[in-house]
Amino acid sequence: MSNNPNISPTVRPSVPSSKRYSVYTAKRLQRWSLTLMEYSFDIKYKPTKKHANADTLSRFPAGPDPNFKDDDSIQVAYIEA
């Protein structure tokens, strides 16, 4: 990574420290924080309305692929299993 801090947009604003998480969520957050500690970045809140471009791409129906053959995928699944 470069010396410039990266900016990571987030969909949710910061939550108060008094918020209680489930044990599983707290452990997952701890693991992520340990993983991300080695990087230098700033987190800025970005409202959902400004995420329309990514949201549109993730929800846009691609339709069926005419080149896809079900037989091939079934055979591969049997070979890998």
UniProtKB/TrEMBL annotation:
It comes from the Eukaryota. This is Uncharacterized protein. It comes from Acrobeloides nanus.
